[in-house]
Structure formats: structure tokens, C-alpha cells
Predict the structure.
Amino acid sequence: MITSKLTTKARTTIPLPVRQALRLREGDEIAYSIDGDVVTMRKAPATIVEDPFGAFDEWDSDADRKAYRDF
């Protein structure tokens, strides 16, 4: 069994074998499910970032994308 300790601020380090098994990297999100006294942890699916110009055809030009690329 792999264990880790909880800090006074309710933080813990995910042990290396667990990070490797889930292929976790910095910035990844973790999903938890609870069934009684059993908690399952898994890597959360990557979120899809929508194109802010996709909903507005009138703003969907190369000039608009260039003007707003840094926002």
C-alpha cells in the first residue's frame, strides 16, 4: 500500500508511483469519486477551451484574431 501524510492545511503530496500510474503532470486536474469509505482518484479529462470568436461570426476574421490574440 502507498501512503502519504496530510499537512495541517489539508495538503498532501501525491506519491511518485501514483503520479506515474495516472501520468499526472503539473497543472493536471484530479477527479475524485466517493463510495462509502472508499475514494477513487483519477486524472480528470482535459477541458476543451472554446474559441471565443466561434460564437460570433462577425468577429471571426484574421484581423480580429490578430487584434485580440493577447487577451
